[in-house]
Amino acid sequence: xxxxxxxxxxxxxxxxxxxxxxxxxxxxxxxxxxxxxxxxxxxxxxxxxxxxxxxxxxxxxxxxxxxxxxxxxxxxxxxxxxxxxxxxxxxxxxxxxxxxxxxxxxxxxxxxxxxxxxxxxxxxxxxxxxxxx
Length: 133
Hints:
- The chain has one domain: Pnp Oxidase, Chain A (Roll).
- Helices cover 39% and strands 35% of the residues.
- The protein is built from four helices and six strands.
C-alpha cells in the first residue's frame, strides 16, 4: 500500500509540474528570433495572438502544436486564414494541416528534446504549413 501511495504522489507531482510549466509558458509567451506571432480568429470573430516557434524546412514555413493547450491549432483548422508577424513584418497566410510523409519529414527535421517533452507531458505533435497569400 505504501508503494502505491508513493507512486500516486510521484504521478501527481509530475502532473502539477506539467500544468505549471504549460501555464507559465502560455502566460509569458517568450519571444525571440526563433518565434513568430500567429493571429487566429475564433467563432465569435475575436482575434487571438499566440507566440509560436517557427520551423523552416525545404523553403517552407511551419509551426507545431507541441503542447496540450492547443486552441490556436483547432482555430486554424476551422478558419485557416491567419495573420503572422515574423521578423517584425506582418503578412497573411493560409494554414494547411500537415499529414503523412510530410509530417514525418518535418518532425524528423526539428525533433523535440527529452527535457521539453518531459516538461510538456508528452503531448502528440501536429504541424501546420503556412502558405503566403
